[in-house]
UniProtKB/TrEMBL annotation:
The gene is Pea15. Residues 3-81 form the DED domain. Its main location: cytoplasm. The keyword Transport applies. Keywords: Apoptosis, Cytoplasm, Phosphoprotein, Sugar transport, Transport. This is Astrocytic phosphoprotein PEA-15.
Length: 130
């Protein structure tokens, strides 16, 4: 739990007031009207997400998605490092998480798969020059 709190602290320290407005805008559909003004710091934003079950120690996919669409690769990298080093997420789980970051994709998770050898279209080699 200490690593999780350290991660949130480090992320909050790297969120400026301008960044916070961008992050709140990226998740505006999840912030009830009137509550957005109460979120004045990165710490408040993380506390809000935890209260509304969008963030917890073992589920960081929501903030990964928000950092990704807000173009904050530096923050996204810190979250991914935490997930792979502290939570010990395997590479297969990592791929699964990437596919299900966006809530609407969860219902298609089992459908997404790699094509079999028979399903792959083979291209003929290019014609040889005479």
């Amino acid at each position: 739990m200490a690593e999780y709190r350290s991660l949130l602290e480090e992320l909050a320290q790297n969120i400026t007031a301008e960044d916070l407005e961008q992050l709140k805008s990226a998740c505006r559909e999840d912030i009830p009207s009137g509550e957005g003004d109460a979120i004045a710091t990165g710490h408040h934003w993380f506390a809000f997400l935890e209260r509304h079950s969008k963030l917890d120690r073992a589920n960081l996919s929501y903030i990964e998605h928000i950092f990704e669409i807000s173009r904050r690769p530096d923050l996204l990298t810190k979250v991914v490092q935490y997930r792979t080093q502290v939570l010990k997420i395997s590479e297969e789980d990592e791929v699964d998480t990437k596919l299900t970051r966006i809530p609407s994709a969860k219902k298609y998770k089992d459908i997404i798969r790699q094509p079999s050898e028979e399903e792959i279209i083979k291209l003929a080699p290019p014609p040889k020059k005479a």
